[in-house]
Amino acid sequence: MxxxxxxxxxxxxxxxxxxxxxxxSANQDCMAQVPNSNGTISTKAWAEHVAxxxxxxxxxxxxxxxxxxxxxxxxTIIRCRNATLPSIAFDVFAIPGFEKSEFRSIHAWDANxxxxxxxxxxxxxxKTTDGGQTWKTVFSSDRAASFFNGMKFFNxxxxxxxxxxxxxxxxxxxxxNSGDSWKRLNVENSPPVFDGEAGFAASNSxxxxxxxxxxxxxxxxxxxxxxxxxxxxxxxxxxxxxLHWSSMEIPLLASSPSRGIFSLASAGQSVxxxxxxxxxxxxxxxxxxxxxxxxxxxxxPVLQSTRGFRSCVIFSATDQHWIAVGPTGxxxxxxxxxxxxxxxxxxxxxxxxxxxxVWAAGAGGRVGRxxxxx
Length: 374
Fold this sequence. Notes:
Elements: H1 6-32, E1 45-50, E2 57-62, E3 68-72, E4 77-81, E5 89-93, E6 103-108, E7 114-118, E8 124-128, E9 136-140, E10 148-153, E11 159-166, E12 169-175, E13 183-184, E14 207-210, E15 213-217, E16 223-230, H2 233-236, E17 245-255, E18 259-267, E19 270-277, E20 288-291, E21 312-316, E22 321-326, E23 329-335, E24 338-343, E25 349-352, E26 358-362, E27 366-371
Antiparallel strand pairs: 1-27, 2-3, 3-4, 4-5, 6-7, 7-8, 8-9, 10-11, 11-12, 12-13, 14-15, 15-16, 16-17, 18-19, 19-20, 21-22, 22-23, 23-24, 25-26, 26-27
């Protein structure tokens, strides 16, 4: 048997160690990065900033790379500005008398104009046109059961708010003047729900507006999760004309008091529904369903799914991939059937700005931007 010199053995050991380090690093990079549509690897990462540590942020609306609005617990409303600077600037607002309210629904038009809605009682909607310096009450519910889950706009003027059921039907509000005033739809135009069924106010994204359609994801009852869809909402709702609702059952996203659909997103004919059980964050079962037939059929991602409960999902047209987030991390996909771990950084909400930049908001008063670290 040939005995190698001691220094040769040492060099071989060093070489093997360096090879293992390189393999491990390459594997970690692949896990943290997402291939985009042309097969190259995105080098983007979450850039985090803390706006108000004691607030959990669940509402988010991004204007552009520089500016975004967010809202959450402890009556917190935040305007993020000058985000291209190394140190982002925050303006933190509180509406007098609502310092302990939960704000989870939000929409903004620019750096000065924003509208927010409470989740819980009292159920109010407020709007500012002077950059958050003053807030006007534009709607105040007279019903003790009102609980607003989400707010979306078809365009700068026409918007929708949906809330938990009252007398067996979802509460729906509409505006045609950029939120300056709101009116509640008649009960006969509001979709009926099953006992225990409701929406989740986790990220202001369980309602999806598509052209003239409204889609609302539900959960909260034992059985299968559902999506309620109205194809003539924008045409008829402002005039309180009859609305035609249909229901899509998503057996893959089972429902229970703490489980259901928390977020919906679309791109072309593709639709993604995410959620799960917010009491079992790491449970991978029933956290995502995908459709490439505009919701006509659904499936669980065939190759790889999300890693646990997810509260929000978006599609980034700029990067040509989907991103889903939850308190335990984020995942991404360029195709519906393969979701890859993106980061262990957790958020509650996502929003894509008009210029394509992706923002996030979460616990500990954190906001994040999906940017190239270079």
